[in-house]
Specification:
There is one protein chain. The protein is mainly α. About 60% of the residues lie in helices and about 0% in strands. It has a two-stranded antiparallel ribbon with strand order 1-2. A hairpin with a 2-residue loop joins strand 1 and strand 2. Helix 2 runs antiparallel to helix 3 and helix 2 packs parallel to helix 4. It is globular, with a radius of gyration of 18 Å.
Length: about 190
C-alpha cells in the first residue's frame, strides 16, 4: 500500500506514521527514498527539499538498484539540487549495482551541466565501473565532455605537483574559468 508522505509542502513526521500504521522502518525508508527519487526525476526542487530537510539521511539512501538521489540528479540533469545534496552529506563517488558513479551516469546520459557540477565538487573521473571503464572512456565519443574531463585531470595533477595549499579551491577556480570561456553557449542551451 502507498502512504502519502507529502501534504501541501508539509511532511508527516516519520514517528507518527510508524505509530499509526505500525510499519517497519525499512519499508518507510524505501517509500521515502522512492518519493525523493521521483521528485528528482521530474525536477521538483521544493518537494525534494522537503524530504531532505525532514531527514538528512535520505541523501545517502539507496533504492533497489543501489542508486542514490545524486545518481538520479546526474541522470536527469537536475543540476540545481546537486549542491544541496552535497550540503546534506551525499557521497559523490558512491557506485550503483553496475559500478556507475554519479559522474559516469551523467556522462552516459550526456548531462553536461550535471557533469560539470560533479567535477566542480571533485567527483573522481578515475573510478571504473564493473566493465573496467572510466569517465574518459565513456566520454571519448563526445569531444566536449572529453575535453572537460581531460582539463579537470590536468588541474588535479598540477595541484598535486605544485603542492597547492587548497587543492579544491585551486581546481574550482581554474576549472570554472575554463568552463566559462570554452562552453558558455553549450551550458546556456543545456540549462534551457
Amino acid at each position: 500500500f502507498q502512504i502519502n508522505l507529502i501534504n501541501k509542502n508539509l511532511l508527516i513526521p516519520l514517528s507518527e506514521i510508524i505509530k499509526e500504521y505500525k510499519i517497519p522502518n525499512n519499508i518507510i525508508n524505501y517509500n521515502r527514498t522512492h518519493y525523493l527519487n521521483d521528485f528528482i526525476k521530474i525536477g521538483d526542487f521544493v518537494k525534494a527539499m522537503n524530504i531532505i530537510s525532514a531527514d538528512h539521511s535520505m541523501v545517502i539512501s539507496l533504492d533497489y538498484f543501489d542508486m542514490t538521489p545524486l545518481h538520479y540528479a546526474a541522470k536527469y540533469n537536475f543540476y540545481q539540487i546537486i549542491p544541496k545534496l552535497f550540503d546534506y552529506g551525499s557521497h559523490m563517488d558512491d557506485t550503483n549495482y553496475i559500478g556507475d558513479t554519479p559522474l559516469l551516469i551523467s556522462i552516459k546520459h550526456k548531462s553536461m551541466t550535471s557533469t560539470i557540477f560533479l567535477l566542480l565538487y571533485l567527483a573522481s573521473p578515475f573510478i571504473k565501473d564493473k566493465s573496467g571503464h572510466d569517465a574518459l572512456y565513456y566520454s571519448k565519443y563526445d569531444f566536449k565532455l572529453n575535453n572537460i574531463i581531460k582539463k579537470i585531470n590536468l588541474l588535479h595533477y598540477i595541484s598535486i605537483l605544485g603542492k597547492t595549499k587548497n587543492k579544491i579551491e585551486y581546481i574550482q577556480k581554474h576549472f570554472c574559468q575554463y568552463i566559462i570561456d570554452e562552453y558558455r553557449n553549450d551550458l546556456e542551451s543545456d540549462a534551457r
